[in-house]
Amino acid sequence: MTNSTGTKATSGTRRAAIYCRISQDRGGAGLGVARQEEDCRALCDRVGWDVVAVHTDNDVSAYSGAPRPAWQELLAAVSRGEVDAIAVWHVDRMTRSPRELEDVIDLADRQGVELATVSGEIDLATPTGRMVARMLGAAARHEAEHKAERQTRQRRQAAEAGRVAGGGKRPFGYEDDRVTIREGEAEVLREGVRRVLANESLASICRDWQARGVVSPAGKPWKPSGLRRLLASARISGRREHTPRGSWEGTRPLLGEIVADAVWPGIVSHEDSDRVRRVLSDPARRRRVEGTTRRSYLLSGVLRCGKPKEDGKACGWGMSGRPRSGVARYVCPNTPGTDACAGTATNAERTDQHVRDMVLAALESPAFMRRLRDQDDAGQELYDEIREDEEDLEALALDVGERRISRKEWMIARQPIEDRLNQNRAKLAKVSRIAVLRDFVGSFEDMQARWKKMNNSQRRAIVTACVRSIEVRPANPRKRWDEDRFIFDWIA
Known about the structure:
The strands form four sheets. A four-stranded parallel sheet has the order 2-1-3-4, with helices on both faces. A three-stranded mixed sheet has the order 7-11-12. The protein has helices at residues 31-47, 69-79, 91-94, 98-111, 127-160, 183-197, 202-212, 224-232, 270-280, 348-363, 366-401, 407-431, 444-453, 456-466; strands at residues 15-22, 50-58, 85-88, 114-117, 239-242, 257-261, 303-305, 320-321, 329-331, 345-347, 467-472, 486-490. Helix content is 46%, strand content 11%. The chain is an alpha/beta fold. It is built from 14 helices and twelve strands. Among the domains are: 15-147, 3-Layer(aba) Sandwich (Rossmann fold), CATH 3.40.50.1390; 183-280, Putative Large Serine Recombinase, Chain B, Domain 2 (Hect, E3 ligase catalytic domain fold, Alpha-Beta Complex), CATH 3.90.1750.
């Protein structure tokens, strides 16, 4: 077995592959792997190996489990018999996982692969050499785990101190220092929060921003997924959020734990931030992704079938858009396996116009608007109750930590608080929808003009701010158009 001591191979010239890896290359210059390759080439010259390939994984961690394309290519080349020697700077450049090291040892047994390291003698053909490799691998694993633990604690401390997180492009709404507010973007961001709280879709906001030339800090148009993360971030309210990396795999969770007030000022209030985080993280919210079909029917799901069943109760199934002979209609769908009766339909264009006129007439009513404003005031009361319950939960957790109460007592006390929190948060998400009306309400003519300029998502936000649902009863066969068949369940 040839090793890094300089002894020549006795079984002919070996075809060697060099493997280089560095975990972090913050400058992107690749200098670390370049130095490894230079040292490994010198090693191959000393032992008399021909270098046939160089495989490099730059800025890739072996400990994290992230894919290492170059390492996989090297293993494939060994399996095909194209390589019978490997040169690395140190064993920990190949792997920091004892399990993966055993795979390397098995591969060496099957293929007769030799290994040379710049940093010392490793002979995988002997029990002693394998023991040394395993000891070095275990030490590398320990160091990687210890380093990860230190970094986790450092990130947590930085978050709890409210410090600025480095790396990446500047956050939208702030200057390059990540602290100073960029007022033009900040106003757009506040607008985005208002529109989400008004139940407008993210896709609709993205289309509008693209038409207006609003782009991300990278200079690209906003997509719903990116906008969702932006608006759900606690950063925009001047608070520091922390999500331990060990607590998730794959896609980063939308919401982290808010641990401190940040050193930068907020663009939106804590209240609005908490509301929009609740709305965007609600599993029941219909999320739209880029490339999906836009909603072409304004009242899909808002309209409910009112045809009586055998028991006398209304069908109640949500009506959806279905054209017939080129005419757009809302129908109770004929969907197998559901309770939908498929017995009600209405002309979509005339229905949209009727609902629009009814909603605008209601918004012109001082009494109706007064009732809506009373609900808005109730939203602030709900928010105060939510904050009080959240503080109670934090106090309970502290009591457990300091052993003033037992875990059983904590669980008993926690349950009613969490139940109340969930109920109030759901109510708050509904109340916040009426925020869209603040810039919409005016004279009937003014509202008509604003309505014409809106897309269907924006119009839907106006409708759902005023009505919970609209029951569509069977049509009167004696009337060409029967407005009386529409029964509105007004919010106020």
